[in-house]
Amino acid sequence: MTSKGSGKQPSLARAVVVARHGKIWLVPTILSALVALCLTLLYMGGILNPNGNLRHLPIALVNSDQGPPLPGQQQTLGTQVSRSVAAATPPDAVQWRRLSQAQMQDQLASGKIYGALVIPSDFTTSVAALTTSQATTRPALTVLTNPGLGSLGSSLASQITQRAAHQASLTIGKQLAAHASEQGTSTTTQSLLGDPVTVTTKVGHPIGGHSGLGLSGFYFTLLLVLTGFVGGNIINNGVDAGLGYTDNEIGPWHTRRPTVPISRTQTLLLKMLMTAGISVLTTSLIMVAAIGILGMDASHLPLLWIFSYCASLAVGLGVQAINAAFGGIGQVVSMFVFIALALPSSGATIPLHAVPGFYRFLALFEPMRQLSDGVRAILYFDARADAGLTRGWVMIAIGSALALLFGFAMTLYYDHRGLRRLTARPAPPASTGTPESS
């Protein structure tokens, strides 16, 4: 007597037999292993040692000290602090930009510097007052942050600046304490002179409270890229199924449409037109959800929408071009182009000044960096062209043009060579919507 489950045994046995053949394992195993290895190296390689990889992080150094110099010295203490700060940081790690107050504010507002150290105009005078018997407080240096460039970048700049300022304070304190000891000043005064400067931290260029500590720009850009990437692949698969070039399976239900005789070039044109149309909806929904429902801080909304639409469309066009050129493996190729290589080289979470040189090279052309600079310029820096918006527009135009040229060049070549995708064949019997009918 045959049990109810015995009827499935032949199918199971056949699967086991097929699984014993090494060839069926070869390609999936190799591709999966390469993807896992490459993703790990790419993602982890860019984040593990930001301090060790730090190169030329731009920080402003504003010396407003007007003196006069202390007795026996030819320079103000502000000048000495400036030199001490630069000497206290590792060579090539920081690019100290000696700016005026107005220049510093302009570069903070355009996202060109990650922070600033400000020496006040009365710095030497306030330090000199410590040598008097009425000295009770210490003069201050001000560290300014720029959270619009990301919480980690701003934090790195703040830590570096605070350490350098404290070291400069100790250096000046040794000189003052020695001089005060010779003059026989009080113990309280000598204690103040040992570390004469206090360091205060303030926000140099404020952003909204609903900005994710400067990360909303990155995550909004990530949404645009993912929508373009995933949406492009959905459109690619949907059109192929609709034209009868692939099967359409949802769970156990299977359908196969009649194959439509259409060239590769015409198919790519159809997919790109659908990408352009559907991106209008997806971009609008992203903004409605992020800004309207979740309350993300955003201004210049019309500009943000058109930039977001063009950014997502450029990614979608690139996905269609790559899929048309590489076929089934195109989804893996586009995943590396738009996700795997783009995320660690975006500079949106870890500054490009704190990643290995390979990622700084990728950032020259990978889309995530270009798009995130444009989005941050709109969200945090009043849509200033020099804050990254111009570069974002230029790279969107270049990326879209390359996608069109590459995609249509490949499909025209394939069509010219007569490399058709499938030979047209009639549709199978109509599906009843059951697993058995497929």
From TrEMBL:
* Domain of life where this protein originates: Bacteria
Methyltransferase found in the keyword field: no
**Occurrences of domain DUF3533 (ranges):** 30-398
Location(s) in or outside the cell: Cell membrane
Swiss-Prot/TrEMBL keywords: Cell membrane, Membrane, Transmembrane, Transmembrane helix
State the membrane topology: Multi-pass membrane protein
Mind telling me which residue stretches traverse the membrane in this protein?
Answer: 24-45, 272-294, 306-326, 333-354, 393-414
GO cellular component terms, A-Z: plasma membrane
Similarity comment: family membership: Belongs to the ABC-2 integral membrane protein family.
Entry protein name: DUF3533 domain-containing protein
The record lists the organism as Streptomyces chartreusis
